[in-house]
Design a protein that fits this description.
heterodimer, A: mainly beta, Immunoglobulin-like, five-stranded antiparallel β-sheet, 0% helix, B: mainly beta, four-stranded antiparallel β-sheet, 50% strand
Amino acid sequence: SQKIEQNSEALNIQEGKTATLTCNYTNYSPAYLQWYRQDPGRGPVFLLLIRENEKEKRKERLKVTFDTTLKQSLFHITASQPADSATYLCALSQSWGKLQFGAGTQVVVTP
Amino acid sequence: DAGVTQSPTHLIKTRGQQVTLRCSPKSGHDTVSWYQQALGQGPQFIFQYYEEEERQRGNFPDRFSGHQFPNYSSELNVNALLLGDSALYLCASGVGGLADTQYFGPGTRLTVL
């Protein structure tokens, strides 16, 4: 069966450091992969999308890599800030609009 | 520009009852997807509506049904509620034909007692 795995343990990081989150998948050939941010009690907010033929994408302090051979994506938050504290969700899709999400990794940035 | 809106915000029902949740997509969007998110889990895809038809469906029983109206808004109906249906129900909208970004609403928190 298809599986998407994200670190279940919260990532505690000091302000100014780089947070790195991992998303691994099995039995899946996604056309593209997305990362979302979710705050408690709120809906997910889109951050970045990377396609299967792309290796890396950047947006401001965020960077995503996508390795279809390793079946892995890494999500980096550089110069992290307390406002970056949230749960980050990885989502994959093979077809239009149907996203399959991981369980998410909570990030806590302390001053 | 209004984003995705959902109503109600919270809802409490008892087992066996039926519930209807509503979603208005972001302006300019014509596709609506529904997701169920249990506590501590990622959202699970329920189904997607485009041109007033269900286009894709996830692994959910027939108790979950939906509808899309000509103005692109959508409803999610759940019959014969079970305790396990307690979750945050999320609506996401996008533009038909593009396998890209989905914009999520704030969700409806359903509690089944």
